[in-house]
Amino acid sequence: MQIRAYAYLMLTTLLWGGNAVAGKLAVGHISPMVLNAGRWTLAFCLLLSISIDQIKSDWPVIRRNIPLLLAFGAIGYTGFNGFLYSALKYTSAVNGAIEQGAIPVLIFVLNFLLFRIPASKVQVLGFIISFVGVALTAGHGDLTALLSLRLNFGDGLMMLAVLCYSLFTIALRWKPELHWKSLMASLSFGAVLATIPLVIWEDANGSMILPDTTGLLLILFCGLLPSLVSQTLYIKGVSIIGANRAGLFINLVPIFGTVLSVIVVGEHLEGFHVMALALVLGGIALAEWGKPKTTAA
């Protein structure tokens, strides 16, 4: 079962890395909030088309948990992406990459404070090594360059994005027992509802860009893979190995995003990219080896 969870989470973060590349390709073709709304609307419609009978069967459970399910979708899906897209208008991609590395740490801290779920010393060392890999990627191989970074309003928004996804991850312990189709349809519907005010806000400030052909293709990609497939696999991974351990895999996102940028966008692969990937994977492996033996982490 654990090997399956690792496979789920590796594929999840690979596709999320692809989402970062899609964000680069979207500039000038579709605005962030329209892309966010389009991807979740597509995901919801697809799920609805294949899940009607399952949703009918699960409706008593869904009805009892509607506020929770809508909150999951609004906070974990739309909230995270909304703050992320907004943050990158004010802060650098380097800052954004590093600050996303705070998600696994915050998951651990919140799990310990709220539920007294421990992490071993070896796990903490794994967290640190993995984060160094993220920082190495963000600093383009020069960790000293990170000392010159300055924090601004965008970094505050980025930390709200980090908080959203951390809360979503640890709150999955309360998800109702539902078939994955019903669960994802409910969460996607919550995400769609939450995108409506964000699209209205984007239109009001004059920054809305309706999709051209490239924008529509990006909606198709993001709706099918980073939204539908990845989020389903992430929830499955968390349910198998726990939030602390699953959250650490998020540090692979900037690494995979960089590698995919080399392949898709034509950026250059540097030696530090390989070193960073080794550090992140090594940190994850070390944390897994040193996980507490008596408590699901």
UniProtKB/TrEMBL annotation:
Its main location: membrane. The chain crosses the membrane at residues 67-85, 97-115, 122-141, 153-171, 183-201, 213-234, 246-266, 272-290. InterPro entries: AA-Vitamin_Transporters, EamA_dom, EmrE-like. Residues 5-137, 153-286 form the EamA domain. It is a multi-pass membrane protein. Keywords: Cell membrane, Membrane, Transmembrane, Transmembrane helix. SUPFAM superfamilies: Multidrug resistance efflux transporter EmrE (SSF103481). One of its GO terms (cellular component) is plasma membrane. PANTHER family: INNER MEMBRANE TRANSPORTER, S-ADENOSYLMETHIONINE_S-ADENOSYLHOMOCYSTEINE TRANSPORTER. This is EamA domain-containing protein. It comes from Rhizobium oryziradicis. The lineage of its organism: Bacteria, Pseudomonadati, Pseudomonadota, Alphaproteobacteria, Hyphomicrobiales.
